[in-house]
Design brief:
The structure is a single chain. By secondary structure, the protein is an alpha+beta fold. It is 27% helix and 21% strand. It has 4 helices and 4 strands; from the N terminus they run H-E-E-E-H-E-H-H. The chain has helices at 25-33, 77-88, 104-108, 124-134; strands spanning 37-43, 46-55, 60-68, 94-96. A 4-stranded mixed sheet has the order 1-2-3-4, covered by helices on one side. It starts with 24 loop residues before the first helix and ends with a helix.
Protein backbone atom coordinates (compact mmCIF):
# COMPACT_ATOMS: atom_id res chain seq x y z
CA UNK A 1 0.00 0.00 0.00
CA UNK A 2 1.25 3.48 -0.87
CA UNK A 3 -0.83 5.39 1.65
CA UNK A 4 -0.92 5.92 5.40
CA UNK A 5 -4.68 6.38 5.37
CA UNK A 6 -6.24 4.65 8.36
CA UNK A 7 -2.89 3.86 10.03
CA UNK A 8 -2.64 4.19 13.80
CA UNK A 9 0.41 3.92 16.10
CA UNK A 10 -0.81 0.57 17.48
CA UNK A 11 -0.37 -0.92 13.98
CA UNK A 12 3.35 -0.05 14.07
CA UNK A 13 4.47 -2.21 17.01
CA UNK A 14 7.66 -4.27 16.91
CA UNK A 15 9.90 -2.30 14.55
CA UNK A 16 13.43 -0.99 15.20
CA UNK A 17 14.63 -4.14 16.96
CA UNK A 18 18.11 -3.65 18.39
CA UNK A 19 18.09 0.12 17.91
CA UNK A 20 19.57 1.94 20.93
CA UNK A 21 16.91 4.70 20.75
CA UNK A 22 13.93 3.40 18.76
CA UNK A 23 11.12 5.83 18.01
CA UNK A 24 7.85 5.21 19.76
CA UNK A 25 4.99 3.98 17.53
CA UNK A 26 3.57 7.52 17.72
CA UNK A 27 6.83 9.04 16.45
CA UNK A 28 7.15 6.24 13.90
CA UNK A 29 3.80 7.29 12.42
CA UNK A 30 4.86 10.96 12.54
CA UNK A 31 8.05 10.23 10.60
CA UNK A 32 6.14 8.26 7.99
CA UNK A 33 3.62 11.10 7.64
CA UNK A 34 6.51 13.53 7.17
CA UNK A 35 7.91 11.49 4.29
CA UNK A 36 7.30 12.34 0.65
CA UNK A 37 6.81 8.67 -0.31
CA UNK A 38 5.87 5.61 1.76
CA UNK A 39 5.22 1.98 0.91
CA UNK A 40 3.70 -0.38 3.49
CA UNK A 41 3.29 -4.13 3.64
CA UNK A 42 0.18 -5.14 5.58
CA UNK A 43 -1.19 -8.29 7.16
CA UNK A 44 -4.78 -7.30 7.76
CA UNK A 45 -4.45 -3.90 9.41
CA UNK A 46 -1.03 -4.60 10.93
CA UNK A 47 2.02 -3.07 9.24
CA UNK A 48 4.65 -5.82 8.81
CA UNK A 49 7.08 -3.81 6.69
CA UNK A 50 7.67 -0.30 5.41
CA UNK A 51 10.04 1.87 3.43
CA UNK A 52 10.01 5.66 3.29
CA UNK A 53 11.70 8.36 1.23
CA UNK A 54 12.23 12.06 1.79
CA UNK A 55 12.86 14.33 -1.17
CA UNK A 56 13.19 17.85 -2.53
CA UNK A 57 10.60 16.81 -5.12
CA UNK A 58 12.86 17.76 -8.02
CA UNK A 59 16.22 16.04 -8.15
CA UNK A 60 17.07 14.12 -4.99
CA UNK A 61 15.43 11.48 -2.82
CA UNK A 62 16.80 9.77 0.25
CA UNK A 63 15.60 6.44 1.64
CA UNK A 64 16.19 6.60 5.40
CA UNK A 65 14.35 3.47 6.52
CA UNK A 66 13.44 -0.01 5.33
CA UNK A 67 12.14 -2.29 8.07
CA UNK A 68 10.41 -5.66 8.15
CA UNK A 69 9.19 -7.21 11.38
CA UNK A 70 11.56 -10.00 12.50
CA UNK A 71 8.95 -12.74 12.18
CA UNK A 72 8.18 -11.63 8.58
CA UNK A 73 11.76 -11.52 7.31
CA UNK A 74 12.88 -13.96 4.63
CA UNK A 75 9.63 -13.73 2.66
CA UNK A 76 10.72 -11.15 0.08
CA UNK A 77 8.84 -8.26 1.72
CA UNK A 78 11.90 -5.98 1.96
CA UNK A 79 12.80 -6.67 -1.67
CA UNK A 80 9.25 -5.94 -2.85
CA UNK A 81 9.07 -2.73 -0.81
CA UNK A 82 12.40 -1.52 -2.19
CA UNK A 83 11.46 -2.39 -5.78
CA UNK A 84 8.26 -0.40 -5.45
CA UNK A 85 10.06 2.54 -3.85
CA UNK A 86 12.81 2.57 -6.49
CA UNK A 87 10.11 2.52 -9.19
CA UNK A 88 8.37 5.43 -7.46
CA UNK A 89 11.66 7.35 -7.28
CA UNK A 90 12.76 6.61 -10.87
CA UNK A 91 12.17 10.29 -11.85
CA UNK A 92 14.92 11.55 -9.49
CA UNK A 93 18.57 11.94 -10.48
CA UNK A 94 19.89 11.02 -7.01
CA UNK A 95 18.44 8.22 -4.92
CA UNK A 96 20.59 7.95 -1.82
CA UNK A 97 20.60 5.49 1.06
CA UNK A 98 23.09 4.93 3.89
CA UNK A 99 23.55 1.42 5.24
CA UNK A 100 25.98 -0.78 7.07
CA UNK A 101 28.37 -2.90 4.98
CA UNK A 102 26.64 -6.16 5.93
CA UNK A 103 23.45 -5.16 4.07
CA UNK A 104 25.13 -3.64 1.00
CA UNK A 105 24.75 -6.92 -0.97
CA UNK A 106 20.95 -6.71 -0.51
CA UNK A 107 20.83 -3.21 -2.01
CA UNK A 108 23.35 -4.13 -4.73
CA UNK A 109 20.92 -6.84 -5.92
CA UNK A 110 18.43 -4.02 -6.48
CA UNK A 111 20.84 -2.07 -8.69
CA UNK A 112 22.29 0.29 -6.09
CA UNK A 113 26.04 0.90 -5.92
CA UNK A 114 28.27 1.62 -2.89
CA UNK A 115 29.37 5.22 -2.48
CA UNK A 116 31.04 7.00 0.43
CA UNK A 117 29.14 9.23 2.80
CA UNK A 118 29.24 11.03 6.10
CA UNK A 119 26.73 11.15 8.94
CA UNK A 120 26.13 12.64 12.38
CA UNK A 121 24.23 10.57 14.95
CA UNK A 122 22.89 12.36 18.01
CA UNK A 123 21.68 10.56 21.11
CA UNK A 124 17.88 10.74 21.36
CA UNK A 125 18.11 11.91 24.99
CA UNK A 126 20.17 14.90 23.84
CA UNK A 127 17.72 15.68 21.02
CA UNK A 128 14.72 15.50 23.36
CA UNK A 129 16.48 17.79 25.83
CA UNK A 130 17.23 20.35 23.07
CA UNK A 131 13.64 20.18 21.81
CA UNK A 132 12.30 20.80 25.33
CA UNK A 133 14.64 23.77 25.77
CA UNK A 134 13.46 25.26 22.45
CA UNK A 135 9.76 25.01 23.33
Amino acid sequence: RETLEGREPAQLQGFFVGWPYPPSPENHLRLLRGSRHVWLSLEGERVVGFVNAISDGVMTAYIPLLEVLPEWKGRGIGTELMQRMLQTLRVYYNIDLMCDPDVQPFYARLGMIPLGGMVVRHKMADINQKRSADE
